[in-house]
Prior knowledge:
By secondary structure, this protein is mainly beta.
Amino acid sequence: MNKKTKCYAKSYDLYSGSTEFYLEVGDILFFETEDRQVRAHTENQLYTTHQRLYELEENLPIEFIRISKSCIVNVNKILALTKSLSNCLVQFQNLHKQVYASRRYYKSLQ
């Protein structure tokens, strides 16, 4: 019996200006779409990628989950979740940036 196994990239090509960086996937806190660009956030830097969120979602390791139409987070980097009626605020370790998980994706985040 042949089982297909997913092959996850250990690093991703990310860009800051005209410079290309190769970052370990574990260093990335989250990916989000903003102004028609997919951005990768680390503790200290903001990068862009040429991949779309759905492409990243298919290729990222299991610790990355989609929490809204515009965001995929690294669950190992989450500091706190604050739930409200309409969504859930996600806070990260060592970062002031926050994102929201929609109700649709909240169960998978728990």
